[in-house]
Amino acid sequence: MPLDMSDLLEQVHTIAKDAGAAIMAVYARDFSIEEKEDKSPLTEADKAAHDVIVVGLEAVPGEIPVLSEEHTEGFTGADAHGRYWLVDPLDGTKEFIKRNGEFTVNIALIEHGKPVLGVVVAPALEVSYLAAEGIGAFKVDERDEKGGERQSIQVAGKPAEGTTWRVVGSRSHPSPDLAEWLERLGDHEMVPMGSSLKLCLVAEGAADAYPRLGPTCLWDTGAAQAVVEQAGGRVETLEGQPLRYASPEQHLNPYFVVWGSQ
Predict the structure, then answer these.
(1) DSSP E strands, the chain
(2) CATH number of 165-259
(3) Is pLDDT at 203 greater than 90 in this prediction?
(4) Which of these, 16, 78, 140, 234, is most buried using a 10 Å CB contact count?
(5) Structure confidence by residue, pLDDT tens digits, 133-158
(6) What does pTM read for this prediction?
(7) How is residue 250 annotated by DSSP?
(8) Which of 34-38, 103-107, 127-131, 158-162 has the lowest mean pLDDT?
(9) Taking Cα atoms as reference points, which of 17, 196, 186, 23 lies closest to residue 115?
């Protein structure tokens, strides 16, 4: 069954914003913090956002299976069309705990291993990034003078010879391999940022590259990869292959680099 991507993008954006509202309700008060088996933190907000998203996606036509970070055991695999929803209800839980605003809700539609639709909502910053195949990539800033209208975004392109590269780096995950990679790149300046917002900075042309030489999971990247690719950029493994999602039983991504050029 073909999907109406324009209508679907609107629906998913609404669901992600609703999840963001649930997160902000917890953010505004004291909250409990648990520790998952992998030692990563889990809060009430992660759980609340997961519940909102699952209910919302179940109401979307198509009965597409959902793979969420907070309920991986409930995923039964892609449907007959190779589709599934890939969800991180709260990406950047460490940033949420630090209360620096750099956390997101990530929802992607995967089709035959490729992210074909992505929504990234940063509720504390009141910013959203949206993208879908055949439609393009957009930023929505609820605080701008245009009242939250969609603004088309695109990558900056490869920096000119002799220009300083703007490289996005993680606040929470410094990598020992990064220094060597940066040395090979040449003259650069670091742009620190948390969560999937790192990829979105490249998508909107505010940064030129984001090397991730450390562990990430599928749900950390799927939605923002859709935004990058629809904005004209690339998300590639160190071997130069597009980051893929065709084997969701394997949750970990390989190392990758986000490039703000074709």
Answers:
(1) 33-35, 41-43, 66-68, 83-91, 104-111, 114-122, 127-132, 136-141, 150-152, 165-170, 188-193, 209-212, 234-237, 256-259
(2) 3.40.190.80
(3) yes
(4) 16
(5) 999 999 999 988 777 899 999 999 99
(6) 0.95
(7) S
(8) 34-38
(9) 196
Distance of CA 131 to the CA centre of its chain: 11
Q: How many residues does the chain have?
A: 262
Residue bearing the bigger pLDDT, 213 or 1: 213
- DSSP-derived secondary structure letter, 73: G
Would you tell me how many other CB atoms lie within 10 Å of the CB of residue 48? 19
pLDDT, mean of residues 186-195: 92
What sign for the dihedral angle of Cα 14, 19, 21, 22? Answer: positive
**Rounded-to-integer distance, Cα 51 and Cα 82, Å:** 24
What residues contact 33, with CB distance under 8 A and at least 6 apart? 41, 42, 43, 97
Which CATH number among 2.60.120.10, 3.60.9.10, 3.30.540.10, 2.40.30.60 corresponds to the domain 5-152?
Answer: 3.30.540.10
Q: Is 77 helix (H, G, I), strand (E, B) or coil?
A: coil
Give the pLDDT of residue 171.
61
The alpha helices in the chain, defined as continuous H runs, are: 5-27, 44-58, 93-98, 178-185, 197-203, 218-230
Count other Cβ atoms within 10 Å, centred on residue 32.
8
Joined tokens for residue 133: 């195949």
Q: Specify the amino acid at residue 117.
A: L
Residue 258 three-state SS: strand
Identify the residue whose tokens are 């291993």. Answer: 113
